[in-house]
Amino acid sequence: MTNHITTTWLGNMKFESTNPSGHNLFIDAGPENDGNGEGYRPKALMLSGLAGCSGLDVAALIKKMKLEVANFKIEINANLTEEHPKYYDKVEMNFHFFGDNLDEKKLQRAVDLSVEKYCGVMEMFRQFADVQVNTFFNN
Description:
The protein folds into two domains: 1-40; 42-138, K homology (KH) domain (GMP Synthetase, Chain A, domain 3), CATH 3.30.300.20.
């Protein structure tokens, strides 16, 4: 399967990028790089892609396993190298689950299945970064 996107320059440092979902997004540099900050930063967007990919896996597994979860969020801290081309060499991904009746063992299994088997974006990140995944349960 091939994904096709088109990213079009809108002037200055701003671009509009299509997505197979039909929802377009804007990419822009910050004022420190002559942009107006009217869009996503490309490298940060990669981190959102990682969180979204794994989050979709975990959400599907929560539904499939019939687990009780009030909410969950994924926080990512990533270290950017100093030399050009700058890239993420270390990524820490933290899953935070919230609820009164969390099945910690099954939720950990859902996270493990995502990061070890299902999430293609995670596999891409592993090609260039040291990725650490942590899970936190909040009752």
